């Protein structure tokens, strides 16, 4: 008897997804709740679990197909997997990572399939660390690789001594090989659903909002000195590094409290003012930029903010962010400085009305009390929707953030 596998509920306002990859082939044994497919939604990848233990049955849709919530995508047959050739159908190249071919001197093996079906988080770990999955022993069910297996192999690779380099013997190019000179290669890759959504939302923001950006520069000396003085005690007490984001989050809360329109949104012909701060923090994920939300950041301590941001950063890296992690948000901070950006004009994250852009810290000559001194400076950018935020309000909010960073005591005494 076959059980149907249908698209699960994906979250509020999400009604469809794209089949990203199949994690099980027809004929393979499947445990209850074991992931059999990965779906790409507008924001995250979602794994579809098996409702029963049995054997992977027939695919009802293909990789790349768009499916709605509740749609039938596959079947699971009750019973154990049968020995012998698997009942497979052609699969997308992205579903399998195969090891490199054996050396010419190695004995050929017949009847064995060394390719491995990897979950999204395992695949990302393999690619990130540059490992060959066929050389790693899996400890998961049926010998499947787990993320912990990959991380352990990566750690072992780092700790093992590098072999002595030797000059390889020159190998003449095959006569049939194309000449490298003058080659004009192209590659066509379909946009992921997440990238399509990012493109659509950013273009929509430009078309609907009256976007404007105001700039200021900020002397980072005081924050850098405070961080240097207390980083060891902070890490020892809270188990997390003291970074710059908690300072800017706290400074932003001061600004949003004094200038409520920067923490508001337009809904129809009304303005919704938020009496709380849910901070969207832009982080880089394998498939694009995502913005998980730190809830009630205005009530949190520096340590709680750092722990929340670090947790989201790791989840983004692992591909385990959920729809709930990214729902809502009243204001965004995006740190392009970690990639070396000197200045930018960030785009707001609708329906929010403002976003703060941080940039790299750079020593520059500045005038202080009539003297030219070298200070670690950062350009700040506040992009805002001019329909709801006046220029005076935007400049005031950014000035409050600048002053709080240059004099962190303001954050302690609420100035």
Order of helices and strands, N to C? Answer: EEEEEEEEEEHHHEHHEEEEEHHEEEEHH
Report the β-strand fraction as a percent range. 25-35%
Number of helices: 9
Low-confidence runs of at least 5 consecutive residues:
83-102, 104-115
The CATH architecture of the largest domain would be 2-Layer Sandwich
Task: Provide the CATH top-level class of the largest domain.
Answer: Alpha Beta
Largest sheet: 8 strands, mixed
Question: Would you kindly provide a written description of the structure presented here, covering whatever features stand out?
Answer:
The chain is an alpha+beta fold and 415 residues long. The protein folds into 3 domains: 1-95, OB fold (Dihydrolipoamide Acetyltransferase, E2P); 118-150, E3-binding domain (Dihydrolipoamide Transferase, Irregular); 198-413, Chloramphenicol acetyltransferase-like domain (Chloramphenicol Acetyltransferase, 2-Layer Sandwich), CATH 3.30.559. It has helices at residues 120-129, 147-159, 193-208, 221-238, 245-258, 302-318, 323-326, 391-406, 409-413, and strands at 2-6, 16-22, 29-30, 35-40, 45-49, 54-59, 66-68, 72-78, 96-97, 116-117, 211-219, 264-267, 270-273, 279-285, 288-290, 293-294, 331-335, 354-358, 362-368, 371-385. Strands 11, 14, 15, 16, 17, 18, 19 and 20 form an 8-stranded mixed sheet that branches. A hairpin with a 2-residue loop joins strand 12 (264-267) and strand 13. Helix 5 (245-258) packs across helix 6 and helix 5 (245-258) crosses helix 8 (391-406). The protein starts with a strand and ends with a helix. The model is unreliable at 83-102 and 104-115 (pLDDT under 50).
């Amino acid at each position: 008897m076959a059980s149907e596998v249908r698209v699960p509920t994906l979250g509020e306002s999400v009604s469809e997804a794209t089949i990203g990859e199949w994690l099980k082939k027809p004929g393979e044994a499947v445990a209850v709740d074991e992931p059999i497919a990965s779906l790409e939604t507008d924001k995250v990848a979602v794994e579809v679990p098996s409702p029963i233990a049995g054997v992977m049955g027939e695919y009802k849709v293909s990789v790349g197909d768009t499916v709605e919530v509740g749609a039938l995508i596959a079947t699971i047959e009750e019973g154990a997997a049968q020995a012998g050739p698997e009942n497979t159908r052609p699969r997308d190249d992205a579903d399998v990572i195969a090891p490199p071919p054996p050396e010419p001197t190695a004995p050929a093996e017949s009847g064995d399939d060394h390719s491995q079906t990897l979950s999204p988080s395992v695949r990302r770990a393999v690619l990130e660390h540059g490992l060959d999955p066929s050389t790693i022993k899996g400890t998961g069910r049926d010998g499947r690789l787990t993320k912990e297996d990959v991380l352990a192999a990566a750690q072992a690779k780092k700790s093992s001594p590098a072999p002595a380099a030797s000059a390889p013997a020159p190998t003449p190019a095959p006569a049939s090989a194309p000449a490298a000179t003058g080659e004009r290669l192209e590659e066509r890759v379909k946009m992921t659903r997440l990238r399509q959504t990012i493109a659509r939302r950013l273009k929509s923001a430009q078309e609907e909002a009256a976007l404007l950006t105001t700039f200021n520069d900020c002397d980072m000396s005081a924050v850098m000195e405070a961080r240097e003085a207390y980083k060891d005690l902070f890490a020892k007490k809270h188990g997390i590094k003291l970074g710059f984001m908690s300072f800017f989050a706290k400074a932003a809360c001061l600004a949003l409290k004094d200038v409520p329109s920067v923490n508001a949104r337009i809904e129809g012909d009304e303005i919704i003012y938020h009496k709380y701060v849910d901070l969207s923090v832009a982080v880089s994920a394998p498939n694009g930029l995502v913005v998980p939300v730190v809830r009630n950041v205005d009530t949190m301590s520096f340590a709680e903010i750092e722990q929340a941001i670090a947790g989201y950063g790791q989840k983004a890296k692992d591909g385990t962010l959920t729809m709930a992690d990214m729902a809502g948000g009243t204001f965004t901070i995006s740190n392009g400085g970690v990639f070396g950006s000197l200045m930018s004009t960030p785009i707001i994250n609708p329906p929010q009305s403002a976003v703060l852009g941080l940039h790299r810290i750079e020593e520059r000559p500045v005038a202080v009390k009539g003297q030219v001194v070298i200070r670690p400076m950062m350009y700040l950018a506040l992009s805002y929707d001019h329909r709801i935020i006046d220029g005076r309000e935007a400049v005031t909010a950014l000035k409050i953030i600048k002053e709080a960073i240059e004099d962190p005591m303001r954050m302690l005494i609420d100035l």
